[in-house]
Request: fold
Amino acid sequence: MAKSQILAIDAGGTMTDTFIIDEKGEFVVGKAQTTPKDESIGLMESAKDALTYWDTTVEKEFPSLLAGVYSGTAMLNRLVSRVGQRVGLVLNKGMEDNHRMGRAVQSHLGYSYADRIHINTHHFDPPLVPRNLTVGITERVDMHGNMIIPIYEDEIRPAIQQLLDRDVEAIVISFLHSFKYPDHERKVRDIAKEMVKEAKKDIKVFASVDYYPVRKESHRTNTTIVEAYAAEPSRISLEQIGTKLKEVGSDFDLRIMASHGGTISIQANELARTCVSGPIGGMVGAKYLAESLGLPNVACSDIGGTSFDVGLITQGELAIDSSPDMARLVLSLPLVSMDTTGAGTGSYVRVDPNYGNLTLGPDSAGALVGVCNPEGGIETVTVSDCHVVLGLINPNNFIGGKIILSPEKAYEAVKTQIADPLGLSVEDAALGVTELLEAQLGNYLESMILGKGYSPAQYVCFSYGGGGPLHTAGYTKGLGFEDVLVPAWAAGFSAFGCGAADFEYRYDKTLDLNVAEKEDSEVILSTGKELQSAWDELKEKVAEEFDKNDHAEDSVRFRLFYRMQYQGQLNDLEIEAPFERFNGVEDWDVLVKTFEETYSRVYAKSALSPELGYSVTGAIVRGIVEVAKPKIPTEPLSGKTPPAEAFLGKRKVYWTDGWIDANIYEMEKMKAGNVVGAFSILESTATTLVVPTGFEAYLDENRIFHLKEL
Amino acid sequence: MAKYNKKKIGELIDGTLEFYELKDMMSSHKDPERFGTYMSVLQERVTWDDPIILPAGLHLYIVQKASGDRIVKCDCGHEFCDYKDNWKLHANIYVRDTEEKMNEIYPKLMAPDTDWQVIREYYCPGCDTQLEVEAVTPWYPIIKDFEPDIDTFYNEWLKIPLPTVKA
Amino acid sequence: MTTKQEELTTQIQEGVFQQSTGPIGWDGKTLKQMRKEIDEISKETGHYAGLKTLPFKESDPIRFEKIFSKLRGGVVHARETAKKVAASPIVEQEGELCFSLYTPDADSIVTSTGIIIHVGTMGAAIKYMIENDYEVNPGIADKDIFCNNDNHVGNVHTCDVHTLVPIFWEGELLGWVGGVTHVIDTGASSPGSMSVGPVNRYEDGYQVTCRKIGQNDVLSKDWLLESTRSVRAVKYWTLDEKTRVAGCHMIRDLVLDVIREEGPDVYKSFIREIIEDGRRGFVNQVKTMLVPGEYRGVSFVDVPFKDLPVHDYAKVNSIMHSPSKIKVHKDAKLEIDFEGTNRWGWHSFNATPVSITSGIWVMLSQTLAPNDRINDGAYYASEFGIPLGSWLNPDDLRSAHANTWHSLVAAWSPLWRGLSRSYFARGYLEEVNAGNAHTTNWLQGGGIGPDGELHAINSFECAASGVGASAVKDGISHSAALWNPEGDMGDMEIWEMLEPLVYLGRQILPGSGGAGKYRGGSGWQSLRLGWGTNDWTMFVAGSGHMATDCGLMGGYPGAAGYRYSALDTDLKERFAKQLPFPQGADVDPDNPKWDTVIDAKTIHRDRQTVSTEEMFKDYDVIMNYLRGGPGFGDALERDPKNVAEDINAGYVLPRYAEKVYGVAVKEGKYGEYTADEAKTIKIREQIRKDRAKRSIPAKEWMKQEKERILNKEASPQVQHMYAGSFALSEQFTDEFKGFWDLPKEWMVYEEDLDVPTYGAHINRFKENK
Reply:
């Protein structure tokens, strides 16, 4: 009897993982080589592999699937390795160089602090559109949408012709302030389409205003280019996947994980926002889990091999960064805001030869683990090497024994590279590295929460990802989180997240509505009217998208948001409107009050500046349609003592009190209700939970560990 | 700690390293062996066998003579002077002191105004390579760019013996 | 018999002064005592605070590092959070703000990212308060707020406004936190943060001298009223101040948190050790990267004031002369001596010693020590020679400083070349950098803003200037500035929100980067059209008649500057009729296209690149030229393919391929160029022959030049520059006369040059003439 309900696909550069989740929330994971030419092939192989664990087949299971979500790195790779479409770019005449000048910031985006100030390291990646495929057309419009210079009609056709002559595969048009005055972009767009038709070519034309009608030319232009350069090619491969799924009898619309934390259809207008990978899935999963557990504020932390990602869920919402950078490009995508620091389990550990201080990262051995990996060829000590020295990870059972680690190599490397220079014993050096890493992650987590105007006591901390649980106790220690949760199924968490994502569209529009501190009601009312019409416009846009998948407007749950700041500021706050429609002056007061509450929380009361007046800088509409989601596993509670078969024996571990005997358990075999004290190590194939001195762990009925500081 | 072989340092000198290789080099702590490797590559590349003590600029080296002298020498073989002297005083010079001469290098208005500043070019008498450029006011004494403390560098900093002429 | 200081101390202890908060230093000492002790013991032992060993760090390196990373991380984070409060793109977009944590006696412990030139300036302000017994009057209490931007106290320029907050623990002062932002207008005689026009302190803007502006974490009403009535663009002033206060308070909380965790004594030993640690680290860095010895360099920047509408005593064409000698001592102490620098002048380009001793770290941390450990330890590992009376150290309270960067960016350029000679000698070719561009133009102006309020602007597009070439690759183009490596040219739609100027162009400028085997990073131009102006004026500030850098090892300097603006134009009609008009960049000033497509009453196309306020209306246009960087090596050694590529990419004009690089190029179907390698070899051979022909032995040339010197053949400004150096420095005079072997009686005196000598005090000739 088929039991599969949710299919989550994580298509990486080399491997495609599929997660198939059943009605109890249990899941199987399959792996297969990614097949870039036609991703559906690798996907099917991977799904087959997964289902062998339930000894059943794709043909048997897929018809029972209720939903499927895809998340992949193909688009990002296309962008990073600069192998996208040959795009022609139309800009304001005189500004043709602007795109390749990368706004200067793109020469140091994504750099470590040391490299950001180290001028000789700065470097521009090749522009997505080279200068010789960029043309200019004369026109100018000001920030209010007033025309300064009419569009020079006779320049349009020659400019487009030049691009056609050079065999571009797509055309992007971006004029200054077009989001305030779309006509010029659209005129060029329509003429270009005409000429493409005449030339009997198949070239898609993108006007920035049809995609990202938001302020900041450098972000808007880049994003529209990404749409043409990297996203459009993905449409084809996604359609291939969609058809293949139908062929094997599945009956759902494949959805794709998008940067705003929801999933969208492959027919979506704006596909560039699906150009995200990994971490977001975890955040979305955390949000879903938090909802199910009724937790409003959650701090999510995920340690992988190369980085530590933290993100906040506040009042049940993911924070959104509306002009983020990705792949060293400034973009105008709504992106689930997450801070990442280059400190993971694979991070290199060094002693600065001149300053004599310990440095962690920012570079890392990533999947090669460290010196302890005989096959890795790594020479510099990594955090994992220190774990091996301390006995925290089992050298013979790393990733379920896939790699046999060499404690001797780790010991020797830590000795010569770290311990001796610092004048410490090898064990103390290894412990020191772990403590420093955990202290840094803890500070990072804390400062992020304080930066939002909250304190850890108001948050529950989630820890997942391969490396997370090993350090959870360390980096949450003393911060006073309300609770610290580690799902026993932590390893598959980001895939779980994909499966748990809402079917949600989000559209933004830039506004400039200025209202003085004490304003007369006409102005307030007209402001409200403009805001409401922006919301209506966006609602329509969202409804259209859902319509592509036959979801009627009345089945969509709409949520209205606005962005507000004090007049003249350059940073606004995104806030949900506490009503469904702007009706009158009193609604304005509500908007202002809600804004100032948030503002004084984030930037301290002293920063309130009502005397400057207020600006509404943007309208946002989010539309959500209910879809099937994985169940949170539940099982009956049993006793405090773990079953005998869960106990794997003892292992020597070095900790603050020297060498001690740690109890080793097999995570999967533990039962709900079990409690383990220090010093315990709970191992599963993909992750390791450490319960150090001063902590105990309790496994609840949802198979979630609660790490308690005693 | 980073470590680079002669091939890599050779490519560094030739400017043929990929940017990511340079970036790695710059982001890492400096490799202690660099000076030795660099010197051996340079020594192999010059056509003469006076031992190089210290590179003094692009094409220029301070070399050890059998006499015990340390002199500045161009890789073309031309020998300038003792390293404590200013090699520029023994070079050929050309001064751009009119708008026309400046316009050969810069478009109009983008060159210095010769009432305020001139450009001096120093060429090697041996190979006519442009070894140094000065942008100074008229009358300005020829600048002595660099006077290394070679003995401290070798004896106290690197703690390695100075190169000597093979008998 | 008691000294004045002892008397004062007892009086403080007895609390005879009403405002006195009593001695707030450690162990009942006054801050003045603490400062004195630190200076003495550091000088005497050569170790900061006399720390020959680092007991804390050595015994518990991990805990030490944990405290460092918490403080450092917190300071950086506070900057990131606080800057979102600001309205000024200079702060929010360009990141022109910085926070730093100090010891009670004003030594910097950790500093955030940003304009770290201020590690020392805020320290100088705290030292000034200590010197003037603020403990006594006005008193220093918990939750006080102080403000300073006084140039002569040791600020960089008036627009850098400091907020200073003391940190107390159980009645004892454990430190200070300082925040600084570059404020867009501070009420100078002309608008903008780095104005040209002020020639003395009293025109240089609203100056606040270490003033207590708040108590109990609240700013006083009188301060808020006075300060906001003293500057233009009040909104920026106000939100910048809120940014600084918010950041300082975040950091104060962080520090108190650390003290709670670690205890005050651990904190006290940490802050001493981390500074000594910074000193040692820097010394080791020098030993790793440099070669001991002496490095000499010089740079100049023009001050063409003769025809500017300023006070008559300021109407002088002069040159700021910046000779520098880097001496790397046996013990790796880094000494930088500016002996020979000429006299300060009546313009806003003067500097203060602190802006050198502190500002130097902005530059050194980009190349010699790019890490997060920079604090006053590095200062204790170095030594500076800054002649009194020179433009680096005016001996007159009247000196103006609003645009000190005009000269600083020039003065620091030779230092890159000095260090680079070391890197080159040691084989660190990847670190070589031929020097920084004159990171200008500053496009400034002001008038009435869109909101009807007084407004001022200063475009920071020059934060994206060209960078010097290295020994292995071209300098990076349009990307950084000396004063901030994290360059950002800004989003055009954001600039247009703040400036009544819309863009007609943003384009790379061919030939702006210095030629060489490796080309200097290119500069660029933006072209702006007046739109929405109201009682508006504009002016420019950049280098013009002179190149302020110099190529390295055979490379050429970056191009000099010029200005372009057109007033009372016919653009309105041209737009309506869809006729051509100036767009993009002024690509080839030898054949200026712009002038053929515009009619204007006034067109400025000249080298007057420092100008004073000029009325500016809608449909007027003004160009902003962001300079390029210097090149490295002989241009004849550049790969011909790269030369062709440079033409295609707009970095080089076709005709210069052959003239400068000796490369023969041919044009293809789409106007793309390729190099003819065979022809190139011949051309290059010929150019070498020409060099041999046109050059003469340096010694021969020296005889000719000596004649010109004896006959005083040089322009007034050049002679004025030398006279200003001769009058201040016997050493420079002797070296100069010695080099040219001039007769004893030969001299150039300022007073013989028929230019005003108003304000020239120090003059070693006064007596013997």
Remarks:
- Chain C touches chain A through 96 residues (CB under 8 Å).
- The first helix of chain C runs from residue 4 to 14.
